[in-house]
Amino acid sequence: MNFEDIKLEKDPTIIFMGTPDFSVPILKGIMEHYKVRAIVTQPDRKVGRDGKVIFSPVKQVAFDNDILCLQPEKIRDILQDINVLEPDLIITCAYGQILPLEMLQIPRLGCINVHASLLPKLRGGAPIHHAIMDGFSKTGVTIMYMDKGMDTGDIISQREIPISNDDTAETLHDKLSVLGRDLLLETLPSILNGTNSRTSQDEAEATYGFNITREDEHIDFSKTKRQIVNKVRGLNSWPGAYCILDDKILKVWKCREGERIYDLGTDGEITRIYDDGFGVKTSNGEVVFTEVQLEGKRKMAAKDFINGYHEKLEGKILR
């Protein structure tokens, strides 16, 4: 169906809510076919030691296109502003706050969300990371109606993609962002015309992909080598998986499963030096770290790290 074929009584008034890079292709896709009346994003933040103020990628789109941009600390603070704008539809994507019921009731056509998982799997704020960390073979995007729960609303449309063995959170993020844009643009005409389908989620099938914690980032060497490889992939390129070497944080950006099996020794023990890195004992063999970053240093190939390290690595215990 071509967008030119969609007949509406008037151009819909759309408000978009989003914050990170993931939201940008989706917002730009909407703007190519519809007028976005306002954009809501998270407030500017100070980062770094110098307190430099940065604003969200979504705000940059608003700035570049002269679109009204609202940045409330709490979404309730702009309830009156949204009421005045009289939106037909609110579209959210990785905004960062749960919308209160009073907000959900404002748009004539409701509030819809672009979520980066096949709901009801991986509800929550970090579905992309967890899809890889949890060993999923596929994931996808869901367009859904929002309700007062966290990603619990009715499903409008879904599309899945496979997760390849070399996907990281970064590569999967980019694939899903484009997939979300395309699926949303295919789905929007039926939403605006009131002809879309909606399906309740099966609560018995629900799982969660909550925001990543510091504990999630830590590598547990009592896990299997596959679980550790998945963790490293799922946390690349942000925030990164880590362990402790000689009381310093060692981030691990890339690794592979090793072929050796160790019946003796301690989980976390550096077992062997290879051409591309160093092996570490796990519960069922070894994992080979191939790209690492020691605290205070730059990211580097593990073979360069080995050559520059001032002590013998074999036999050391990572924790």
From TrEMBL:
One GO cellular component term: cytosol
Q: Which domain of life is it from?
A: Bacteria
List the catalytic activities from the record: L-methionyl-tRNA(fMet) + (6R)-10-formyltetrahydrofolate = N-formyl-L-methionyl-tRNA(fMet) + (6S)-5,6,7,8-tetrahydrofolate + H(+)
Q: Which Gene Ontology molecular-function terms are recorded?
A: methionyl-tRNA formyltransferase activity
Q: Where does (6S)-5,6,7,8-tetrahydrofolate bind?
A: S117, L118, L119, P120
InterPro entries xrefs: Fmt, Formyl_trans_C, Formyl_transf_N, Formyl_transf_N_sf, Formyl_transferase-like_C_sf, GART_AS, Met-tRNA-FMT_C, Met-tRNA-FMT_N
What does this chain do? Attaches a formyl group to the free amino group of methionyl-tRNA(fMet). The formyl group appears to play a dual role in the initiator identity of N-formylmethionyl-tRNA by promoting its recognition by IF2 and preventing the misappropriation of this tRNA by the elongation apparatus.
Q: What is this protein called?
A: Methionyl-tRNA formyltransferase
Q: Which organism is it from?
A: Candidatus Coprosoma intestinipullorum
